[in-house]
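Render this sequence as a predicted structure.
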Amino acid sequence: MKYIQHKCEVEITGVSDFDLERIFECGQCFRWEADESGTYTGVAFGLAASVRKKSGSIFISGTVSDFENIWRSYFDLDLNYAEIRKRVSIDDFMAQATKHGAGIRILRQDKWEALCSFIVSQCNNIPRIKKIIATLCSEFGDEISFNGRLYYTFPTAEKIAALSENDLAPLRCGYRAAYILGASRAIVSGQLDLKTLAASSPIDARKGLKELHGVGDKVADCAMLFGLHMLDSFPLDVWMKRAVAEHYGKGFDPSIFSPYAGIAQQYIFHYVRNVRGGAKL
């Protein structure tokens, strides 16, 4: 990988497996939007940015310092996803899934933002999740001016912990408001330390997350994969349960894809939702 500063953006070359639509539209994040040219703009770690791809190069707005301090890690650019695709292509089904999903990368998101986002996601659809999170940020985040528009940071756990359920009413997130407040207060009080969990074992991380009111297996597994970057975590929603039952039977064990079961999960999820369309599921 090489990168060079242009006037207002950094050009990155030598990165395979980088497809903006597949990265941002695979259900792992909810704050990036595309324009008619295919450029995505969003906010992460308090910084707004635009990302585009042209002729094999990736262009990210900002400086080399922004790239080195935030985006290189955020897009997991030092991990060879092409090799991982080969590794998890253990049968014909996975060969097709990885071929279709080439370009997906697991983002290294802010741990609190990911946990909060997947608490919001339960029993919800993506457009509504995006709307709730956008309102959460515009109501309680800090303003950022970028390219003539206002964007907002994701509010800190400290900011949310000081609120009440009534304060969260504009989000129209129902019972999830209590879960959001509970998680934020657990973090602020020290009951839950996401950095410590990220350095712990998957068993301990899952146990710690599930101690939060309203966090079950799926939310915990999503928070582990997309927030703690535990790449062996294998979230199971209804689509995934049907897919693995059809192709691997009742005794399915995600460890057949270890240590990248979470990445394999994203290839399967993307494939069955977008190519198979659920026809056999």
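Summary. The chain has a mean pLDDT of 95. DSSP finds 13 helices and eight strands in the chain.
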